[in-house]
Design goal:
206 residues; four-stranded antiparallel β-sheet; elongated
Length: 206
């Protein structure tokens, strides 16, 4: 692909659309494509581990920027790490007595635990993050590894402004192919939930 960053991607989309008048709206199309990726994609590139600290007397930690879904939580003060049990917030067995946490839940913008910590604990959070290109963050691993997904996803998000059905049909085919290849690449290392390609339903191509 002839682009490696946010600026080059925007220029490539303008070129594919042959609509320089839409240049100001390209960032919106990219943002919409990323929001879709972040909702439906379950690829290893989105998984991160971050060290956090649960301070003594507290039972919550703020979630990191870019967090979209939790995968696992450990207390890292012992080896092997002590895995904690996940529950939904409504079922978190909250206690006012300080102790060593055993359960966790995502509650709003926080990682919540079942009791106030009786000491400071190092916590490891494994989570699924999201992608967000902008001028301050002009590239990411998804764009580097799968630039075609970005291109065709962005072109498809321009559908409400473009009335060229033939071009849209071609972009859908190319987007579907990119999704298929990503799923195949991911499945070689582990089973993953497939990326869905329901965007065509939204633009009336199916």
């Amino acid at each position: 692909m002839p682009f490696a960053n946010y600026t080059e991607l925007r220029a490539a989309v303008v070129g594919w659309l042959h609509r320089s008048d839409l240049a100001g709206q390209i960032p919106d199309f990219i943002d919409l494509a990323e929001r879709r990726f972040n909702r439906i994609a379950q690829v290893r590139l989105m998984e991160n581990e971050v060290p956090l600290t649960l301070t003594a007397g507290s039972r919550s930690i703020a979630l990191p920027d870019g967090f979209t879904a939790p995968l696992a939580v450990w207390l890292a003060d012992v080896q092997p790490r002590d895995v904690l049990s996940a529950v939904v917030p409504e079922q978190l067995p909250v206690s006012s007595q300080a102790g060593r946490p055993r359960y966790w839940a995502v509650d709003g913008g926080n990682l919540a635990f079942d009791c106030p910590a009786d000491a400071a604990y190092p916590v490891t959070l494994r989570y699924r993050g999201g992608f967000k290109l902008n001028d301050a963050a002009p590239t990411n691993t998804l764009l580097t590894k799968y630039p075609d997904l970005y291109l065709y996803g962005t072109l498809l998000e321009s559908a409400p402004r473009i009335r060229d059905a033939d071009s849209l049909a071609l972009w859908q085919v190319m987007y579907d192919r990119a999704v298929k290849e990503i799923n195949q690449a991911e499945s070689r290392s582990r089973a993953v939930a497939p990326l869905r390609t329901e965007l065509a339903d939204l633009v009336g191509l199916r």
